[in-house]
Amino acid sequence: MSPGQIAALVAAGAFVLLVLLLAIPLIKLGRTLDEATVAIRKAHQNSDPLFDEANTTLTHVNTQLERVDGITANAKAVTGNVSALTSLFTATLGSPLVKVAALSYGVSKAVKARRKAAQEPNKHARRRPRKGGKR
After folding, report:
1. Which residues contact 135 (CB under 8 A, 6 or more apart)?
2. 104 found inside a domain
3. How many angstroms separate the Cα of 81 from the Cα of each of 4, 85, 86?
4. Which range marks the domain in which residue 4 is found?
5. What is the CA radius of gyration of the chain?
6. Cβ atoms of residues 107 and 113 within 8 Å
7. Would you say residue 105 lies in a domain?
8. Is residue 108 part of a domain?
9. pLDDT (tens digit per residue) in 103-133
10. For residues 118 and 122, what is the distance between their CA atoms, to the nearest angstrom?
11. Is the whole model's pTM more than 0.85, yes or no?
């Protein structure tokens, strides 16, 4: 055997050793990819019922939102009616009612003042005699 043939045998042995060392991680990677494929398949199978339930839930939520929208519209109409009623009350009865309240307040103050004046002795009724003058 010539030195070239020996070198070729050593190189071939190193190449076989390199292929064997690289084959082990490649086999493990293939197993990992197989497990990932199985996991993805299971997740896909389990996601269908989840999406169906999510669609059902969204349908119910939309139904409830439509009801809330109707309630909100009714509340808006009631608010408008109350506002119109308040404006009508203010225009028709508000001003006269304020005038009547002011008049009754003034009358009650005047009556109280007269009663108080009637209960107290009249201070101005007695006059002092003038100095040096006739009475």
Report:
1. 129
2. no
3. 108, 6, 9
4. 1-92
5. 53
6. no
7. no
8. no
9. 999 999 999 999 888 887 665 555 555 666 5
10. 8
11. no
| CA angle, 78 then 84 then 87, to 5° | 140
Which residue, 98, 79, 101, is CA-closest to 90?
Answer: 98
Q: Looking at the 3D structure of the chain, how many domains does it have?
A: 1
* C-beta separation of 129 from 135 below 8 A: yes
Distance CA 16, CA 22 (A): 10
Does residue 131 belong to any structural domain of this protein? Answer: no
Q: Which residues contact 129 (CB under 8 A, 6 or more apart)?
A: 135
In this predicted structure, the answer to whether residue 30 has a pLDDT above a threshold of 90 is: yes
Q: Evaluate if residue 24 carries a pLDDT over 80.
A: yes
| Maximum Cα interatomic distance, the chain, rounded to a whole number of Å | 174
**CA–CA gap between residue 75 and residue 68 (Å, rounded):** 10
Q: How many helices (H) and strands (E) does the chain have?
A: 2, 0
Phi-psi bin for 132: left (phi > 0), alpha (psi -120 to 50), beta? left
DSSP collapsed to 3 states, 27-76: HHHHHHHHHHHHHHHHHHHHHHHHHHHHHHHHHHHHHHHHHHHHHHHHHH
